[in-house]
C-alpha cells in the first residue's frame, strides 16, 4: 500500500516523519516501531514494522528480528493491561497471495481478541468495523508502550 500523497511505502513514509501522534506511532525502538492499524480488526490492532523497507523476515538482521519480536511481546503486555483481551491473533502476511495489504514491507499484526467478538468478517471479506476511535486507542496505549 502506498500513501496517497507519495509513491513511498506508508510504513517508510510515516516512520520518517516527525508526527508520531498524527501518524499513530505509539513507540519507536532502535530498529522497529509500533503503529496503530488505521483499519483495525478490533480496538487496539497494532502493527510492528522495521524502519528498513524489507519484503521478508529473511532480510532482517538479528538485531532487527530480536527487537521486532520483543516489541510484539511488549504490545501484548500493553494491550492486556489496557483492554484485558481473552487472547491475541499475531500474524505476518508475506506477499499479496497471503493477504499482505502493505506488500513489500514486512510487519507483524497484533490483534487483541475477546470471547464472543464478532469481527471474524474481516478475515473473509473487505468489510471493516471500527468499534473504537483511533485517537482514544492511541491515548490509551501510548504510555503503556513507553
Report on this model:
By secondary structure, the chain is of the alpha+beta class. It has a single domain, classed as HIT-like (HIT family, subunit A, 2-Layer Sandwich), CATH 3.30.428.10. 34% of the residues lie in helices and 17% in strands. It is built from 5 helices and 5 strands. It has a 5-stranded antiparallel sheet with strand order 1-2-3-5-4, with helices on both faces. Strand 1 and strand 2 form a beta hairpin. It is globular. The two termini are 28 Å apart. The N terminus is likely disordered.
Give me a quick take on this structure.
This protein has five helices and five strands, in the order ααβββαββαα.
Which keywords apply here?
alpha+beta, disordered N terminus
Itemize the secondary structure elements and their pairings.
Blueprint: H1 10-16, H2 20-23, E1 25-28, E2 32-36, E3 46-50, H3 62-83, E4 87-91, E5 108-113, H4 121-124, H5 134-145
Helix pairs in contact: 3-5
The major sheet is characterized as:
5 strands, antiparallel
Average pLDDT score: 87
C-alpha termini separation = 28 Å
Provide the spatial order of strands within the biggest beta sheet. Answer: 1-2-3-5-4
- CATH architecture assignment: 2-Layer Sandwich
Q: Using DSSP, what is the number of strands?
A: 5
Amino acid at each position: 500500500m502506498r500513501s496517497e500523497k507519495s509513491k513511498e511505502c506508508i510504513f517508510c513514509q510515516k516512520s520518517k516523519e516527525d508526527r508520531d501522534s498524527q501518524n499513530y506511532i505509539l513507540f519507536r525502538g532502535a530498529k522497529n516501531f509500533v503503529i496503530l492499524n488505521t483499519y483495525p480488526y478490533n480496538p487496539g490492532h497494532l502493527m510492528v514494522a522495521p524502519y528498513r523497507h524489507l519484503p521478508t523476515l529473511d532480510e532482517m538482521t538479528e538485531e532487527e528480528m530480536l527487537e521486532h519480536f520483543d516489541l510484539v511481546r511488549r504490545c501484548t503486555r500493553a494491550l492486556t493491561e489496557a483492554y484485558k483481551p481473552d487472547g491475541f491473533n499475531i500474524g505476518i502476511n508475506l506477499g499479496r497471495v497471503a493477504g499482505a495489504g502493505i506488500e513489500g514491507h514486512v510487519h507483524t499484526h497484533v490483534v487483541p481478541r475477546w470471547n464472543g467478538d464478532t469481527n471474524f468478517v474481516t478475515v473473509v471479506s473487505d468489510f471493516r468495523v471500527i468499534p473504537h476511535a483511533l485517537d482514544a486507542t492511541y491515548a490509551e496505549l501510548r504510555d503503556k508502550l513507553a
